TrEMBL record:
It is found in: Cell membrane. This is Flagellar motor switch protein FliN/FliY. Belongs to the FliN/MopA/SpaO family. Keywords: Cell membrane, Cell projection, Chemotaxis, Cilium, Flagellar rotation, Flagellum, Membrane. InterPro entries: FliN (IPR012826), FliN-like_C (IPR001543), FliN/MopA/SpaO (IPR051469), FliN_T3SS_HrcQb (IPR001172), SpoA-like_sf (IPR036429). It is a peripheral membrane protein. The lineage of its organism: Bacteria, Bacillati, Actinomycetota, Actinomycetes, Cryptosporangiales. One of its GO terms (biological process) is bacterial-type flagellum-dependent cell motility. One of its GO terms (cellular component) is bacterial-type flagellum basal body. The keyword Cell membrane applies. Pfam families: FliMN_C (PF01052). One of its GO terms (molecular function) is cytoskeletal motor activity. Residues 171-241 form the Flagellar motor switch protein FliN-like C-terminal domain. It comes from Cryptosporangium aurantiacum.
Amino acid sequence: MTAPTEAAASVLAQVGAAATAALPLLPAVDPLTAGEPQVAPDTGGLVGQGVLASFSGAAQGQLLVAVSQDLVDALAQSPMGALDLTQALQPVAEAAAATLGAVVVEQGIPVPDLEAGLTALADSGDAAFVLLNDDTGVRALVGLLITAVTSTAAPGGPGGSGAPLRHGLDLLHGVEMDVTAELGQTRMTVRDLLSLIPGSVVELDRLAGSPADLLVNGRMIGRGEVVVIDENFGIRVTEIITPDSDRPQGGGP
């Protein structure tokens, strides 16, 4: 067997650290364990989809995070509306890339064909991969390609172990979502928009003191009162909108 080059040996150590950093953020019902880093672009039988993100800074290259199809399906069938896989895995990619030093991770792009994605990454240079497993098999993987390095990072270690079948909603528990509060809306002509200056007042379609809408992924999930928390604005939820109807459920103050 041919010994790995110095560059290949380095990326093997670094992908191990990247996978360890990704483990706590990967949505999964059961804890995952990182396998041994490998240079072979092997999916280990994983059926699913991935996200490929480029990064730059202390190191430059690409990072691939892939998850099983049941998580992809759970995101698509979320009660809050279809959730984007690239957004769900962006925090995972950022945590993994942070083990390389101060880097900026670009928004990832979908990789629907895992085998082709892994092969393309391996053909682009010295890439390495780590399979993430539970007791049922491979549930995710992390791939790393480093094209330039200005500083190094120390490798890390693996996580825990797991058990039986998973349920769609349970898989979403660790996914970070963008939550926004909307005070109101209005419609304006282009002429009125162009006439806006500092000090202009835009009237919204909501009375003062009315509850604000709470939205996740652009879908309203509740309403609440605007409050101030340590000089920051917040929302005290007063109503929850059920997934199967627009009728609110009252909540406590």
